[in-house]
Structures are given as structure tokens and as C-alpha cells.
Specification:
The chain has 21 helices and 41 strands. The protein is of the alpha+beta class. The protein has a seven-stranded mixed beta sheet with strand order 27-30-31-37-36-35-34, with helices on both faces. Strands 5-4-3-6-11 form a five-stranded antiparallel beta sheet, with no helix packed on it. Strands 13-16-19-20-21 form a five-stranded mixed beta sheet.
Amino acid sequence: MRVPLSWLREYVDVPAEATPEDVLAALVRVGFEEEDVHRFELQGPIVVGEVIEFVEEPQSNGKTIRWCQVDVGEAHGGVRGIVCGARNFFVGDKVPVTLPGAVLPGPFPIAARKTYGHVSDGMIASAREVGLGEEHDGILRMVELGIDAPVGADAIALLGLDDAAVEINVTPDRGYALSIRGVAREYSHSTGAAFRDPADRPWDEVAPGSGFPISIDDQAPIRGRAGASEFVARVVRGVDPTKPTPAWMIARLTLAGIRPLGILIDITNYVMLELGQPIHGYDLDKLQGGIIVRRAQPGEKLETLDGKERRLDPEDLLITDDSGPIGLAGVMGGGTTEMSGTTRNVLIEAATFDTVSIARTARRHKLPSEASRRFERGVDPLVPFVAARRVADLMVEYAGGTSDDEFGGAVFAEVFVAGIELPPLFVPHLIGVDYTAGEIESALRLIGCEVVEAEDDAAGWHVIPPSWRPDLTDKWTLAEEVARIEGYDRIPSVLPLPPSGRGLTAAQQGRRRVANALAAAGYVETPSFGFTTEEQNDLHGSPSGAHLPSIKLANPLDGQAPFLRRSLIPGLLQVAHRNVSRGFTDLALFETGTVFLPKPGVAYGTPHVPPLAVRPDAATLAELDASIPPQHRHVAVLLAGNLVTKQPGIAPVAAELSDALDAVRTIAGAAGVMIEVAQGQRAALHPGRTGVLSVGGTEVGYIGELLPAVAEASDLPGRVVVAEVDLDLVLSLASEKVVAASLSGFPAATQDVSLVVPADVPASDVRSALADGAGELLESLRLVDDYRGQGVPEGAKSLTFALRFRASDRTLTAAEATEAKLGGVAVATERFGATLRE
């Protein structure tokens, strides 16, 4: 909201010496955010001059210029010769003259210069040249602006160009501040300056009659509320739309960010800014019959003032006459009844419309306007009569009309504002400041509330908010107002003490450990969007590549990827492709994120979306919850390129499946589980180079090398290995908290063992058997060789394991280590028929 200071001073006592920055500081104290200061970017001397004579001189380029003699007063050099191309002024006219040394918006400095064979000693200015609108077809004539000033007078002050405007950010709950009336009141609250309400006008002395037919026929109310509760009409006859808008009004509208469009429209905009009540004017002679406020009918269309034809929705609230729609209520008028240069009789509309209805219409048609901006925040329902009278009075004064009070009309309902019970200690306890009862009462009365003390002192107050504050709906909003008026600086800055024993949950701690461990191992975390294609979901989000259900979004961010992901791998492949395309070919990436795994046979998505303005009941909330598929948090890694880059004396080492296995072991160690690997199969992974990851017999993920065709489809050269783990499931399978093991001061005893087992027995099963039989002395167990060939029977393989034993209280003997190893061999022999290889 831009507020010209001269306008603000009409309704609140702003000190003459106060700067725009001082005004902004005062408004900041009552909760507004400052945005900017706006001024007319010009400087004098710009003075009133009188055209003494001029000679018209045709030029070779076909243009005719006027060589003028203009009297600017003895103090400014008397009569000056000025070249001017405009032809709308006459001898004897007083005009604004920019003298050498002046600077016009642009910036455009003025200097004496030779042009068209003359030295032009200044310039006669148009409206656009001094910043008063876009009119550039003619010179500003003081007589048309109603200005009678002596020659040599300061034109900057006469035209209102010495004014400035402050701009504040108005939050959606404080729509009353989208007016000079509201901002003046807030400045008064901040400084204690006397406030004069511009709505305090004698509108009721000439109340609108019932000569013009108006009706409200809303058959489809939103939230049970009619779209219009009040509609006031006044008629002004015999206006002259060609009359100029006063310079002071143009200056104020320009500073407020409104483009001047002619006296009739300028007056409606001026009153809207002054009172916060949107106004619309109709050409009365173009109306057919009376006005009906109703909802749109199927198939109806309307051409709005911006020249666009709009297909109407049955929820749109319309202003209609016998010809059909003539305006989108509270948003924008129609082109068929707009005021124009031929308008002679005006019907003035000031109404109160439902906030939700207007907001939906404006958004549906992508048609924000100054009117809808105010209506959707709520306007004062007691102002329409005042605003309509104010517009009529200004049109009579400046457009030469006559008010026809007998031909007006009005439809309105009683305005009821619900009271709020405010307990006496509620505000101090909520805000944390020891406000006295007197301070609370004073603050609420200052903002316009009616405060009635309860008979019982312990009951507090019964508070009725003012009509212009629809945001005050409960005791919490009243408490916020008390804190705002009494000053935010009184609220202590005290950090709350967290209750002991709380912090991250076990699952949160586990996820953080896993992410930190992978980062410490050299992996880079790369979060990606949770959307993908159905093909990618089938390829990476199912073990066999079969089609499984996926959730499709109604309004996806990317129309090419409208499905919620079932796997993290597609996102990692996109990140890898982006890096490779930029020259980064050696990649070690990981991501932790949510995947969406709908269950087969379950229909997800809700058939009924509750309206935005209605709070859903428990059954609707349960239906919405049931429409959300299970969401699991996964962790995935991707390796491509070299794990060790080429260096002097060192050959590059390409990332392999074993490196991805190390990443899985890192995840397992951070999660506190033992992850086992067995041969598996996935649609996107290489046969024979794919493993299934499990914990205690429960499958938790997979690992493998991408098929060359899949890697090539992602534009990834060479070998790409990936692994994905259901992190939530892994953490739920962890039996105990992860505790760092104590370091033993005693040496380890190492032994190797080679076992011959059938070729189809997984090495992980043999490893588990050795671990089970070796007992508590076993510290680590590692597969170091898988041999098949000469010396090993057909259909068998030799697995070599490195075992390390250690005791916490003594140095182990070789016999103790051998006994533990043989215990493991015995279990492997029992389970798989393993024999020691000679």
C-alpha cells in the first residue's frame, strides 16, 4: 500500500517536519513492514509561465512548431523564447515551464539549446514529462486544472509534485490498511496523533431511495453465506467526462500507484484508496433494466474491461441487468456498461461481497485487481453508503454533475459482529508480559473495540471488534492486538528450556548416523525430486520389472514425470547424468529419501476433495489418510567411473561391485545390523552381478551392476553399480543401540581356513556357519578367495576365509585360536558338508 503523505495528513496530525522515513518508523512500530519511499523524480526550477505570443513555423520534415514568447516572471528572467511542438494552448494561457537547470523524470536535464533555428530557453511541459500520468498529446494548461496562480509561482507545489509516498507491506489479515483511512488510524495508534475518520460524513442526510431496482438472487452460496450482503447505488446525472482531473488528485493517485484514466474513473479510484471501499461506476444509459446480483449460469460469457472474453463458472458471482452479465462482482466490470468519454449519467456501485467468493473468482480467472485485493481481505460493511455519497459529491464538484438522490437504490442487511470473551489473565500469560487491566482495555478501545467489563472481575471482558476488523475473531487475535499496540519491544527475548530426556528419536538418530557414515566414506549426498515416469518405476521399483501400481499426481511439477517414485535409483541416475554431462565422470553418490509403495489391489486417491473453506470432519480426514500410500525411507548409493583416479605411478582403479558392498557394510555398521548378501535378480541389473540384501532372513534391499543398456539409456559411460536399502526396515530390525566397541590392549590371533563346499552354496551362508561355531573369541571374519578349478572336485568350490580372534582379558594362545576355528568348521560341515581343503 502506497500512502501519499499529503493525503495522510488530512486525516491524522503528521508533523510538518516529519520525513517519509519517520512515518515508516511509526508504522513499523505497530507491525507493518516498510517497503519503499516514492517521490516524483524531478527538481526545479519549474514555474508558472504565461504565453505572450507564438508564431507557427512549418518545418521541412512536415512538422509545425511554435516559437513562443513566455513570461516566467522577473525573478526568472522575464520573457523567454521557447520552442514547442504542441498545439493545444493559446495566447494568455498559463502553463508549467521547466527552466534550464531543471531535471525531469528519466532523468532528463533541461538546458538552453538550439533547435529548429532558435535557442529554446526552457521547455513547456506536458503531463507525462512532469510525471503526472501518460498524457503526452498536449501541454498542461493551468486553467484546465483549476489553478489560478501568478506568473513565476512554483509549479511543483501547485501541481502536487513536492509530495512523497511511503509504501508498506499489508498482510492478508489486515485488509483495512489498504486505505488511507486504515493507515491514518494506525499512525495515530503508533504516535498518539489526533485521527479524523474520513468515513465520518453526513451520508444519512440524503439516504438513497428505492427508485433504481436492485436485487440479490444468490442460489449457490459458499459456506452457507450469500455472495453479496449489501449493494448501494447512487445516480449522478449530467457529468462531463472530458473535465480534467485536479492536479492534486492526479499527483496522489500517481504516488499511490494508480494510473489516471479520466475524471470519472479517477474519482472512483480515489475514494477506494481513501476509504478502502472498492467502487464501480456504470454508464447509466447503457444499463438495461435493474441490477441483479446472481451466480453465473452454464455457458455464460463476459467481456471484462481488459477486453478479454471470459467463460464463466457457476460459482462466479455476477452483476447483471436485463441484457445478462455486466461485471464480475468485486473483481472487474464488463465492457458493455463501462464509463467512457460519452458518459453523461453515472450509476455508482458500493457493495459488500463475500471474501471467499471474490477470492475464488479472481484466482479462477487469473484476474487480480485492486478491488478483489480488498474484497478478499474483507471491507468495512458500514462504509458503502458513505463511499457512494463521497463519489457522488466529488463527481458533482469536479465533473459538473447533479446528484439524483431519489433515483438511487440499496439492498442491505443488519451488520452483526460477534462478541469475544477475554479472560483477565489470558493476554499476560499468552504474551509473557505483565499487562495491567487498564493497558489491555486501553489497547482494545484504541483499535476501535467495544469493551464491556464483566460483573465478576474474574470473568474478564466482553469485547466486540470494530466492523473494519474481520480478522479479530477470538481471544488469541485480541491478545496479538494488545501486544502490537503496547509495543513488541516489551516482549522479553527468552529462549525456552527444552524438557530433559527429549531429542531425536531412535529412528532419526539412525538415519543421521547412516548419512554421516556415508558422507565420511567419501559419498556425496544428492537429494532429488520424488517424481519419475511409470517406465522408471517398473524398471527400478520392482524385482522383476513387472508393472506395479504407482501413484499419479493430478498436478505434477513436470508433466513428463507425473508419478511418485518407487525407488531412489532413477533420481540418482538423473543426478549422475547431469554431472557426467558437465565433465564430472568419477561419481560416488548417495541419497536418503521417501519412496511410495502402494499395495496391489488398493485404490489410492480420494474420490471427493473437500472444499477449501470447509474444515473436513473426522470421516473425511480418515478417508484422506487412507488415500495416501505407504511411504518408506530408503537409502541408495551409486558408483561410476574411477574410485581411485590416475596419478603418477598409480593406475586408475574403477569402481566395482565390491565397492558398493563396502557402502552396504557402512550402512549396516551405522544402523547396528549385519546385512547378508545372496545371489538375486533385478530387471535393471546384470544377471550374475546382482545381490539380495537381507537382515536375519528379512529382505531389506538389493545391490548390483546396471545392465549396459540401462546405463547407456541414462547416457552414463562404463560400469555403474548401485545399491538400495529400506532404511526404515533396517533400523527397525536393529536389536540394540549402536555402541562403540572398546579397544582391547591384547594382540589378535589370525588364522585362515579353506573349505570345499558345493558350488551352489552361498558364501554368506558358509560365513554365517563359521561365525556361529567360532564363538565369542571371533572378532572378524572375511572372505578372501573363491576358487574353482584344478584340485577342486567338479561342482564344488573352495572358499578361503581370514579369521581374527581376540580376548579382552588375555593374550590368546595358538591352541585357543585353532580350537575356535575348528568349532566353526564343524558347524559348516554339519550344515553344508564342508571339508577342509588340503
